[in-house]
Structure formats: C-alpha cells, structure tokens
Design brief:
Distance between the termini: 36 Å
Strand order of the largest sheet: 5-2-1-9-17
Radius of gyration: 24 Å
Helix content: 25-40%
Number of strands: 21
Strand content: 15-25%
Length: 657
C-alpha cells in the first residue's frame, strides 16, 4: 500500500500542525533555489506568483502565447468556499462532507478537509486582487447554489468566474515577472522530465515557434497542466488541452491515479454534426434556476412551448425530490442519458433534454414587480422584468447559447446533453502534493487528490487556487529545506543530454512516418472508441474490445500518420501529433483501470454494478482504495493501491432523494 504521508492527529488539526512543524527555507537561501512551474492556469499562475513572492527563482512555462490563454479562463459558474454568508447552515465540515459524499467516498479525507479549510482564504485573496465577484444589493458578496449541496456557497462573477479569477492570478504572476522573480516562457511545451539520482532536476521543452529543444534546471518541478478530457476528442476542454506533460512524468516514474475517473458534465450544447471538434459548456449554475425536462410521450416532436405542463416529465425533480435539478453531475448526466436512451430525447438527434427558464423568469418577474410597487403586472411586464433579472445573473451564457444555436433561450428552452468535462484522475500525489518521483509535484486538475470519483461543481477553481496559493508554498518548502546545499546542476549533465536526445529521436520518428492519415482523423477515431466504450457507461466486454482497438489504432498511428512541415519551424500539426500519441497510450490505461474496478462509483459507471433503480453500486469491501498505476513498458502497467481510511465520514450508499 502507498503511503500518503498524512499527518497524525485529529482531522481538523492536521494542516495546522503540519504548517507548524514543516521545515522552512530562509529568505537568503530561497534566492539560490530554482523552481520550474509547468502550466499557468489557476494552479500554475497562483503557484508561480506565490513562490516568486516568497523569494524563490521561478521559471514558468506554458504552450499558449500568453498565460491568460490557460483553459481555466473558460470556467463559468463559480468557486466554492465555506464562508456561510447566507447563514443557511454551511461550514468547513459541511463543505468537506459534501465533497467526500459527492466523490462517492473515493477521495482522501485529509486532503479534502484541508481544501475546505483554506477555501475561505481563497475568496479573501481574490477580493484583495480585485476579482469582481457578484454582490448583493447591500454590497456583500453574493452566493448561489450548485449541484450536490443544499446550501449556497458558490461565489461567482456572472458566467465568467474562471476568467476573472485567472486575471487576478495572472496579474500577481506578471508582478513577479516584472520584479525579476519569475521568468516566463510562453510557447514552450514540456516534453520530458530530467531525473538525476532519483530526483526531478529539470525539464526538456520545445520552443513551439522555432522548434528548438531547450534544457532547464530546477531544484524542483511543479506540474500544473490541467486534465486529460481531450482523450475523448469531443469535450468542453480547449482544443490545445492535453496530457503530455503529466504523461511524460508518468513514464519517468510518477504513478497515475484513478485514470478512469472522468467527469461528464450534464449541461452542454449537444453535438450537432460529425464536423465538430469541440463542445460548449453551459454552466452548471443554470441548473440553479432552470428546470430540466423531457416530454412524457416518446418521440414527441412538438415545439417545447406547445407541450402542456402536465405532459412534461421533470425527471430530476421526480426521481430526486430532496435535491431536484441540483443533484451532482454524474447523477444528472446518467439520468439524461437514461431518458434519451429510452426514447424521450428531444431535438433532431433525439440526444438532448430541455433546460427551461420560463418558470424562473416568471418568478423573478413577479418579485421584481413587488419591489417596484406594481400591484397587478401584466404577463408582458412580468416577462420583461424577469428577463432583466436573468440577464443580470446569466446574460453572457444566454448570449453564448444563442450565438451557437441560433435559438433565443429567453423564448424557448435550451437543449442540453452531457459531455466530457473534467478528469478526477491524474498523477498520484501524497499529502504534500508530491508524486512518486522525488522533487516532482502536481497541483490542480493535474493530480488526482481531492474529488474522488466525481467532482462537485465549482470545486475545480477552488482546488487549483488552494494548491497554488495556500498548500504548495509550505509543502515544497518542506522538501527544498534539504536541497539548500545542492548547487545548480549544469544542463550539460549527461542526464539532460540523454533526455534531450530521446525527445529529438521521438520527434524525428514522427516526422519520418510520412503516412496518409491526418492527426485529427486518428484522434477522432480514438475519441469515438473512448466515448462509446469508456464514457458515461462501461462494461467488461466493451472495455476489453476498446483496449484491443486502441492498440491497433496506435500501431496504425505510428505507421500511417501524416505530419506536414518540418521540425525546425512553427508546426502545430507536429505538436498535435505528439499529444495524440500520448492520448493513445493514456486511453489504453484508462480502459484497463475501468476494467479492473469492478464496481460503480461516481463518474465510473460499470453497467454490471448498479442498484435496482439504476444508481451506482459501490463495493467498499474490495475497492476502497486509490488505483495508482506504475508504467512498466509498452502495454504494461503495475497496479499499486492507497487504502482510503475514513476516520470521520462513514461511507453510505449515496442518496439525493
């Protein structure tokens, strides 16, 4: 069993005791220590800014043209924190409990409690940076509801919370760049980790403009590179999002935790055709006021506004009365799939359900009329005032939907369907966020640690900023306190040379294939295998087939992929080819992990393991552990386990009824 290095003592005291006893690096020594940060989203930007502020010499890398292009900018609905502004019963413990339960009891208690504990400080930090959170009439920060909870703890900035938070972290990062504490490398992609005497001591990266390979030394390396949802090809992720940095670390000895735990988001714009290369997220915050339904009659082709109320099935409210439309994402996604599979889907594809704002608009309109002293408002007045309130809360999301679909969601219900969104799996890390490679840390979505088998909405931004602002400054310092006598290792060291040669050799091999099939088409074929056989539902037969199909597809990739251009120039197709090659290997491991876990939990739904009512059926006796896979060579991994010991929360069958 793996040792997560969880501190002794009461759950609520662990982090305080850790901070009080961890080793420190004095300011003079910090100036001589170099740290490499890969990725500049919320986790990476906050980590680089914090470490630079502390006095370390930081080098930050991103493959985009600016740190502000990081995919964190696309997050919409909000960020959780246990401040209890609504006085509705929230607390650090309740946020901790909701997160553990939402993850179907497959997360590590100590990490989740720490996350809940520092959540309030994140809001204070961001407000101090000028993040324009929404406010109530009296000036207090506003909160709204998200899935899987019965309190309002989500702070937001309309439907662009990720963008505003990233700008705050980006400004903190750029301040450190201006002060000379952080050196920023845009358009650089990490292609390998350099290991010297068992410790991560640097990276090999490629300048994506010139094609030149570069060597960079660091006393420690922190990966903040996000998730791997694009293994499915169609997802809500930015098209550049990839697994390459984490995968290179994995192949150098970093165990991969729970790779099959992927999240399907229930509110996305449905697929409209084979030409699509990306899906668009409609924030979960829309479930705060919107009602989800399908017609009660199969194949009903009437326009939604012509279907009477008594002929509509508000199936989430029917099946889960306690939480209604605010059940967790995995539950809502499977329920939508079940209705569509049963023949009740809507739209031309029949692979969609309605998200309806008519009742919310009416409710808000009547409230607004009362506020304005209008005693007998007309239906038109109620509609107009309700539209204004909804526009204030969700306007940019409604505008985005109309631009993409051509339909006005103020007039007709949105059509939504589940899509791949987030990955709970990632590099295995201990309590200090250190991987199984000494000196190599993983933060944010890049690691596996805080969400179990299903992430609650508005917790991704919380984890990224918690790791970067409040956790890594202590834990990486605890490691680096023993490295103050280690001088900077010249990049002429044989380990750097060997790593660069292997990277160059792989790139040359890719360019020499000169096949006939595009990278994009091979990626799309991989995505179809993954979605069909390792997506919202999986079964043993399909997973076995998927493994064989992926292996065959990988052989075809390495013999028939077509990459135009050359190595020593700006070549996005070459960049994409390397990333898809890594996805091919990851996809196989994901299917192996899903096949090995003979239970259903959270986003991992094995059809063979479900209750009579179609809910996920866990097997706590045999699978109360983290699966941590060690790379042993092509098509071979060794499974290690971290036991999940619940000392405070007692696992039960999840119920949102």
């Amino acid at each position: 069993m793996l040792d997560a290095k969880i501190p002794e003592g009461k759950l609520e005291d662990k982090w305080t005791d850790y901070k009080g006893h961890c080793k420190l690096v004095n300011p003079a020594n910090k100036r001589r220590i170099e740290i490499i940060v890969i990725g500049t989203g919320l986790a990476g930007a906050s980590a680089a800014a914090s470490l630079g502020e502390m006095g370390y010499k930081v080098k930050a890398f991103c493959f985009q043209d600016s740190p502000r292009r990081a995919h964190s900018i696309a997050a919409q609905g909000g960020i959780n924190a246990a401040k209890n502004y609504q006085n509705d019963g929230d607390s650090v413990f309740r946020l901790f409990y909701d997160t553990i339960k939402g993850g179907d009891y497959r997360a590590r208690e100590a990490n989740v409690y720490r996350l809940a504990e520092v959540s309030g400080s994140i809001i204070d930090q961001c407000v101090a940076q000028g993040v324009p959170f929404a406010r109530e009439y009296g000036g207090l920060l506003s909160n709204r509801s998200f899935g899987g909870v019965q309190v309002q703890r989500t702070f937001y900035a309309a439907g662009q919370t990720g963008q505003q938070l990233l700008i705050g972290a980006y400004q903190a990062l750029e301040r450190q760049v201006a002060l000379g504490n952080v050196t920023m490398y845009s358009r650089h992609e990490m292609l390998d980790v350099v290991i010297i005497e068992g410790k991560a001591r640097g990276i090999i990266c490629r300048n994506l403009i010139t094609g030149e390979l570069e060597r960079h030394f660091g006393h420690a390396v922190a990966l903040c590179t996000g998730g791997y949802g694009n293994v499915f090809y169609l997802s809500t992720n930015a098209m550049g999002s990839n697994v390459t940095a984490a995968w290179k670390a994995h192949k150098k000895g970093a165990y991969f935790g729970n790779p099959c735990f992927t999240q399907i988001h229930p509110t996305c714009i449905p697929v409209s055709g084979d030409y699509q290369s990306k899906l668009t997220l409609m924030s979960e915050s829309l479930r705060n006021d919107g009602r989800i339904w399908v017609p009660k009659k199969k194949g009903d082709s009437r326009p939604p506004n012509e279907i009477p109320e008594d002929e509509r099935d508000y199936y989430l409210e029917r099946r889960y009365p306690a939480f209604g439309n605010l059940v967790p994402r995995d539950v809502a996604s499977r329920a939508a799939k079940e209705r569509c599979d049963a023949g009740y889907g809507v739209g031309s594809s029949r692979q969609a359900v309605y998200l309806d704002y008519a009742s919310a608009i009416e409710r808000y309109g009547k409230t607004e009329a009362g506020k304005r002293g209008i005693d007998h408002p007309s239906a038109e007045q109620i509609k107009q005032m309700g539209d204004e309130v909804v526009k204030e809360k969700y306007g940019n999301l409604f505008d985005m939907y109309e631009k993409i679909t051509g339909e006005n969601p103020y007039q007709v219900p949105m059509r939504i369907y589940p899509a791949v969104h987030y990955t709970m799996g990632g590099l295995w890390v201990d309590y200090e966020l250190q991987t199984t490679v000494t000196g190599l840390f993983a933060l944010g979505e890049c690691n596996f640690s805080d969400h179990g088998a299903n992430r609650l909405g508005a917790s991704a931004l919380m984890q990224g900023l918690a790791d970067g602002y409040f956790v890594i400054p202590y834990t990486i310092g605890n490691y680096l306190a023993d490295e103050i006598r280690t001088p900077a290792i010249p990049t002429t060291h044989p380990a750097f040379e060997e790593a660069e040669n292997k990277v160059a050799e792989r790139i040359q091999t890719l360019m020499n294939i000169k096949g006939n099939e595009s990278v994009e088409s091979l990626h799309k074929r991989l995505g179809k295998i993954m979605w069909d056989k390792c997506g919202m539902a999986r079964n043993a037969q399909g997973l076995k087939e998927a493994i064989e199909e992926i292996r065959a597809l990988r052989k075809e990739f390495w013999s028939n992929v077509k990459i135009p251009g050359s190595i020593d120039e700006f070549n996005p197709e070459l960049d994409k080819a390397g990333r898809v090659a890594d996805f091919m290997e990851l996809g196989e491991l994901m299917c192996m992990d899903a096949l090995d876990r003979n239970e259903s939990c959270g986003g991992h739904f094995r059809e063979e393991y479900q209750t009579e009512e179609g809910e996920a059926l866990r097997d706590d006796e045999h699978y109360m552990f983290v699966s941590a896979w060690e790379y042993k060579g092509d098509e071979y991994w060794a499974l290690h386990k971290e036991a999940l010991n619940y000392e405070v929360v007692h696992p039960t069958q999840r119920s949102y009824k």
